[in-house]
Amino acid sequence: MSSTTDQANTDRIKRIKYRAHHRGTQEMDIILGGFVDARVADFDSSMLDRLEILMNETDADLYQWIIGQPGTTQCQDSELLDMIIAYQREKVGSGA
What we know:
This protein is an all-alpha fold. It is built from five helices and no strands.
């Protein structure tokens, strides 16, 4: 990868981290921010695209999907959502 591409990717990850930690609700700041901090370095460009799309959802929808509240709309990226849910369960289970 070129230096320009590396810098663009670094800047993109910084923007994603900022958005994940400044959602608007404290619950989603903690859940999504923690997930992004722990996992975003392993994501390729395609996964970053998917994450950014998911982060465009409202905090209310994201939170309802994560806690499994019935009667909510369907998440379009259930695989990524499942990764967030698994991370959160792992974190809560470990007492972190």
